[in-house]
C-alpha cells in the first residue's frame, strides 16, 4: 500500500517512519498541503494521509478518486475539512485518529490560561530585558472562579479534572450531556452569562459554527477570558476582536483561528501578514496565540502514528475499520 503523506513536518516524518515498510505499507512524505493543485501528487498512491489544514473538499476528492486513491487517513480527530458525502459517493474510506492524547490538548489549554491570567508572556519578555518591574502584571486567582466548558468529551473531561484540581467552580454545556458523570450541566446561555472563563472543547459543525459571536459576547461577563483549543471557526474572529476593543473580553487564548490554514505551521516572520484581524488580535496585550500546537507532545505524535498505521493496515487488509468516519 502506497501512502502519500501531505503537509509533512519533521515531527510527522519521525513518528511515521517507525512504521515505514511494515506490513507492506510505504509512506512517501510531501511537505505540500493537499489542495486542488497538489492533489496530482497522489497519482499512483492507494491512500493519502492528511492533517487539519489540508483541503479535502469535493474537488480534491474527485481528483483523488480519479487517481485511484481508496482511503483518506486523517492524522487528527476532527474531520470538518473532509467532504464525507463526496468521499462516500466515490467509495473512498475516511479514517481518523479519534484520540491520541486528550492530556496534551487539555494541558495546553491550562498552560495558555495560566500564561494569560498571570501575565507570564509579559514577564518572560521583561526579565530577558532585565526589566524587573511588576507594573501592570496583576493577575487573578483561578481558585473559586467559574469556568464554563463547552464540550465534555475526552479533552473536555480531562480539562474539567485539571480545573477541579485548581479549586475552580466548573459548569459545562454539551449537546449530548454525559449521564451520571457528576458534571454540572447548564444551558449554553447560562454558561456564557455566568462564566469568568470559557473554554471550548466541542467539534466544529454547522451548528457550532460561530457559537461565539456578537450575541454570545453580549451576554458574557465583563472581563471574561476565552480559551479555544478546539477549532477556529467556533468563534467569529471579528466579533472577538470587537469584544476585546470594547474591553468586554478580558483575554483570549487561541490555539486555533478561523483562517489559520493560510498561516499556521509556516514561518511567516519575513512576510507582511495580510490577515488584518489576526494581525490585530496578535497585537493585543491580552491575546495569546499558539499555532494549533496543543496536540504536539511526544506521546500524542507516537499515538497518532500508531493509530494511522493500524487504520491503513485495516484498509489494506479489508478488515473492520474501527476508526472510520461515517456520515
Ligand atoms: P470528543 O468527540 O471526545 O468530544 C466532543 C464533545 O463535544 C462530545 O461530548 C460531544 O457531545 C460534544 N458536542 C458535539 N457537538 C456539540 C455542540 N454543538 N455543542 C456542544 N457540545 C457539542 O472530542 P475530543 O477528543 O474531546 O476533541 C474535542 C475537539 O478538540 C475536537 O473536535 C477538535 O476540534 C479539537 N482538537 C484540537 C486539537 C489541537 O491541537 N488544538 C487536537 C485534538 C482535538
Spell out the CATH superfamily of the largest domain: NAD(P)-binding Rossmann-like Domain
Strand order of the largest sheet: 7-6-8-9-10-11
CA-atom Rg in angstroms: 21 Å
Number of strands: 11
Cα end-to-end separation: 25 Å
Average of pLDDT? 97
Small molecules bound in the structure, each named once: 1,4-dihydronicotinamide adenine dinucleotide
SS summary, helix count: 11
**Main sheet attributes: strand count, strand direction, barrel closure:** 6 strands, parallel
Count of the domains:
2
Q: Do you know the CATH topology of the largest domain?
A: Rossmann fold
State the name of the first-level CATH class of the largest domain: Alpha Beta
Structural class comes to alpha/beta
* Mass-distribution shape: globular
Amino acid at each position: 500500500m502506497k501512502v502519500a503523506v501531505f503537509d509533512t513536518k519533521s515531527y510527522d516524518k519521525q513518528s511515521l517512519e517507525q512504521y515505514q515498510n511494515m506490513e507492506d505499507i510505504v509512506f512517501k512524505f510531501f511537505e505540500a498541503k493537499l489542495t486542488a493543485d497538489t492533489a496530482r501528487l497522489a497519482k499512483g498512491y492507494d491512500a493519502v494521509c492528511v492533517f487539519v489544514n489540508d483541503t479535502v473538499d469535493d474537488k480534491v476528492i474527485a481528483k483523488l478518486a480519479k487517481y485511484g486513491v481508496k482511503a483518506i487517513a486523517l492524522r487528527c480527530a476532527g474531520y470538518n475539512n473532509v467532504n464525507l458525502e463526496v468521499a462516500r459517493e466515490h467509495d473512498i474510506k475516511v479514517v481518523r485518529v479519534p484520540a491520541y492524547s486528550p492530556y496534551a490538548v487539555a494541558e495546553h489549554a491550562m498552560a495558555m490560561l495560566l500564561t494569560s491570567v498571570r501575565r507570564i508572556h509579559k514577564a518572560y519578555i521583561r526579565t530577558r530585558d532585565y526589566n524587573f518591574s511588576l507594573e501592570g502584571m496583576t493577575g487573578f486567582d483561578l481558585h473559586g472562579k467559574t469556568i464554563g466548558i463547552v464540550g465534555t468529551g475526552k479533552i473536555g473531561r480531562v480539562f474539567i479534572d485539571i480545573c477541579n484540581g485548581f479549586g475552580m467552580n466548573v459548569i459545562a454545556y454539551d449537546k449530548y450531556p454525559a449521564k451520571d458523570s457528576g458534571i454540572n450541566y447548564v444551558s449554553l446561555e447560562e454558561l456564557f452569562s455566568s462564566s469568568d472563563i470559557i473554554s471550548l472543547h466541542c467539534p466544529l459543525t454547522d451548528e457550532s459554527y460561530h457559537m461565539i459571536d456578537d450575541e454570545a459576547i453580549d451576554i458574557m461577563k465583563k472581563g471574561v477570558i476565552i480559551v479555544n483549543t478546539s477549532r477556529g471557526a467556533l468563534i467569529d474572529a471579528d466579533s472577538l476582536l470587537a469584544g476585546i476593543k470594547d474591553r468586554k473580553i478580558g483575554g483570549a487564548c487561541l490555539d486555533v483561528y478561523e483562517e489559520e490554514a493560510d498561516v499556521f505551521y509556516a514561518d511567516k516572520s519575513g512576510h507582511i501578514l495580510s490577515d488584518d484581524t489576526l494581525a490585530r488580535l496578535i497585537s493585543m496585550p491580552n491575546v495569546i496565540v499558539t499555532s494549533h500546537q496543543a496536540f504536539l507532545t511526544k506521546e500524542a505524535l507516537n499515538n497518532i502514528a500508531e493509530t494511522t498505521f493500524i487504520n491503513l493496515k485495516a484498509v489494506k487488509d479489508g478488515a473492520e475499520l474501527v476508526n472510520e468516519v461515517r456520515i
